[in-house]
Each structure stands twice: as C-alpha cells, then as structure tokens.
Amino acid sequence: TNELFLYYLRNPLHHRVAIAAVELLTLKSNPHYFMASFDITSKLDPQTLDNAINSARKEILGRFDFKGSATTIELNKKDMVLNIHTEDEMRLKSIIDVIRMRMIKQSLDPRSLDEGKAIEASGNTIRKDIKIKQGIDKDAARKIMKDIKDSKLKVTAQQMDDQIRLTGKKIDYLQAVMNVLRGNDYDLPLQFGNFK
C-alpha cells in the first residue's frame, strides 16, 4: 500500500527496501518485462563437421572401388568450403552420398551443403567445391518472416544479421512458431536457442 511504502521510505533502516520497490515497479512498467524470446539460427559446428568429413574420407578411400584413386576430400574450416577432387561423376556422387550419411550420424543436417556444379580439372578429373551454409541468408529470412507473420501469432520477429530474434508474451506462442517453422522447408537447417 502507499502508506506502507511511505513508512519504508521515511525510515532510514528500510530506505533500501523502498528504493528496490521503486526499481521493481519501474522495471515492470517496461513492455518487454514479461517478454520471452529465442533466436533462430542456422549454423554448423566446424569441428563436428570436420569429424564427419574425416570419417567419410576414411570410409571412401578404404573402399575397393576407390583403390588406386587420386581422390582428395578437404574441408577448409576458415572459409567453410568442402573441396572434392576425383576421377569421374560416379565417384563424386558416391563421395557426396557418404559425406551426407556421415553428417547425419553426427547429427548434422546435409541441407547445409550448397553443392553447386562440378567443374573439370586437369588430367581428366573433376573438382567440386561445396560451400557450407552458415547463417540465415536474406531469401530464407524473408520466407521465415513471412511465415511468422502469416501464422497470426502474437509474436515479434526481428532480423539480426544472419539470425532472427523472436519475442512474445507467452511461451506457448513461441513454441507454436517453432512448430510452424519446423513444418516448412527453407533449404537450410534451423536451430532454436538463446532462450530467455
């Protein structure tokens, strides 16, 4: 009550209690005080991916149909690009299939691979540079923001560089948005984290 508050404010022994109460009331008047939030991201852990590539390389080069092959499989962790060099399209397809399988075993989503096209290299060989998708690109972000808006749920989405921050007054709303996004395909894996 106001009388009790004034008592605490006038009494030096309880002055700090009164100040704390004022601070709490001020904080609660902030519209974001009761907001819950989380971040939508799309990232792969480079070390986990490296482990998957190493396992795939060991399996491929140990296979009978790759005996004597000049195949190389290297992950550039700085640029997040997977470089594959082999003799023909058939072997290239086999390599990518094994890499995808090994990624799944490491709980990595193969949709992170931006394969592109193979190009001819020297000595009747082919090379393929596969970019690893890191972050939500503009096109995917636009689709995600539209799907959130179309859901009619009372949440706010804000794009922050290569991720999206979602806020809402009720956790149920945020969970509903998660279900909506999980049910759609944006050609890249989505992670939900930094819950507050």
Write up this protein.
The chain is an alpha+beta fold and 196 residues long. It is 41% helix and 23% strand. It has 6 helices and 9 strands. It has helices spanning 2-10, 15-28, 46-61, 89-105, 138-150, 171-182, and strands at residues 36-41, 72-76, 81-86, 113-114, 119-121, 125-132, 155-160, 163-168, 191-193. The strands form 2 sheets. Strands 2, 3, 4, 5 and 6 form a 5-stranded antiparallel beta sheet that branches. A hairpin with a 3-residue loop joins β5 and β6 (125-132). α1 (2-10) crosses α2 and α3 crosses α4. The longest helix is centred in the middle third of the chain and has 17 residues, at 89-105. It is elongated.
